[in-house]
Amino acid sequence: MPVGLSFYVFAGVCYVIDVYRRKAKAETNPVAYFSYLSFFPQILSGPIAQATDLLPQFNRKRDLNWKRTEDGVMQFTWGLFKKVVIADVYFYYHRRQRQSRNRIYLFQILIQPA
Fold it and tell me: Which of 112, 108, 113 is nearest to 90 (CA)?
């Protein structure tokens, strides 16, 4: 049986119960339904969100705002920089430290002149 199958089953049952109790209308958009069913941050953090909380967010009309797009790209770029430059460099030196048993710290790597 695939790992995480129970999450999808419980999310589907939660949706059916919400529709049965008339807390949510039956979803006619398959993209919105499957987005609700497989919403990745919800899978990781739990608990299972009710359809009444999540489905309206998928169906809401969005406008393309240049400022928000620019902000999102900047946040993504900053996170990528932190991962590639800081975390990967730290991992490389940390691995080297464990192999040679030298004490090298991240602040020494970043502050030490070339």
Answer: 108
